[in-house]
Fold this protein.
Amino acid sequence: MLYSIADCIAANAVAFPHRVAIEELDPRHGTEPIHRLTYQEVWKAVCVVADAFGYVEPGPHGPMVAMLLPNGSTHVLGYLAAQIAGVTAVPLDVRRSTDELAYILRDCGASVLLSAGDALDEAHTLADRLGLRVLDVRALDVTGEHLWYAPGGRDSGRTPAVVAYTAGTTGFPKAMCWSNQEWLLRLFRSGWAFGLSPDHVISVPSPLSHVPFGGMVLGALTIGARVRIMTEFDADLAVEEYTRHSTWACLTPALLGAVTERWRERHRPSLDALRLLLSTGAGAVQLLDEAFDVFPRARITEAYGWIEGGWICHEVKDRAALVPHSVGWPIVGAEISIRSDSGLALADGEPGELVARTLVPFAGYLGEAPGATDLLTPDGFVRSGDIATRLEDGRVAIVGRTADRIIIAGRHVYAAEIERVLLAHPDIAEAAVFGLDGPKGRCVTAVVVPRRDARSSGATLTDDVLRHCRLQLDAHACPQVVLPMHSLPRTAGGQVLKYRLADALNRR
């Protein structure tokens, strides 16, 4: 395979060098970009960074460059420079603790740490601790004459391109490695399904260190679109952005909820610029319904997947036929099955674990012997850890996580169903449900984040929420404990870290 993602973008730099590729937005400066790069400037900077890597000492899994960067164009430069330098990029989430970052760096064996800006102090702390070489990407001179890497000509298809670590929502993060051809194929599949095109202006409010979001940016640049990256998410900036500039946006349920709440507070302005909204993570049906009002000219869509399996399902929403938990039909190159605990395929309507296999198979975690992973079924499907049902029309509905399945008096309770009911309460913005062991056995516990304009608070809110649940849930599924909090701990991809909530409550 002669073309990687980097080669595709290099070809764009030749075809339309002066087209704007990336704009960075700082919430303090509104929608006016603080930094702008054309396709030619992007590729020139990529070549400079690749040259600056120099010799990358191989670790146990080959030569790897870790990236601890503030959100912005530097992530793009790092991903692409690694591809043309023949090394593997390892993106790191700046929100992880120093110990978590050190664990990942030891695990992958990176010898170079690419960093910049506010992340540099942490990078030097880690470098001193682990003996790494730090490279400040913003200190590199991109104004002079440098070697220009032409597109194509290198058979790099099987060369490892990126190591993606899981969020670690249930323990230590694990890593998987994708080759250049695997990553490019993943981007082609998702770009086709999600309607990316060169005439779109792509909004990026999420961390590019999270490979699915970083991949969306690279996919957009591969097809020649313009990307506007928020250095950090800000709901006011998002409202302005979707009123005047961006035409395509991917929002997790948490971000969509924050934008919707700010839209209400600002007296429901018309967010007319957006033409396509992609929601991820099986958001509440109430939130998706209101999205039709928030983005009146946009096509409202939803996608579902996980890092090992990739993007699996997609749906263009019909407001008149919204179905709770539905994430749509399998996208091109994806085959799904709903399995029982014993591995048997289940009939439509029966809940079981969703498994899938795609054009880009999951080969196991970094460092595992081939076939050693327990994430694969005997017939090659990847386990999701999600409980799902198949609807009569073939759509998939996600009803919970296997880890979130709570057994109360011998009966199964799914956290996602209770969260859906909680989010239907007019005073609740976010909710997380899990099981805790109490004096009388296992109990359903709910942590809720009230809306800023909530009509009640404290004990009054708790009592009101409990009454709301009793009207809509069976008695065994109703939360016995409801605790209001200001926010929920989340991963870079927007997943709630329920184990942290449970640990905090168990220590009380």
In short: The two ends are 56 Å apart (CA to CA). The first helix runs from residue 5 to 15.
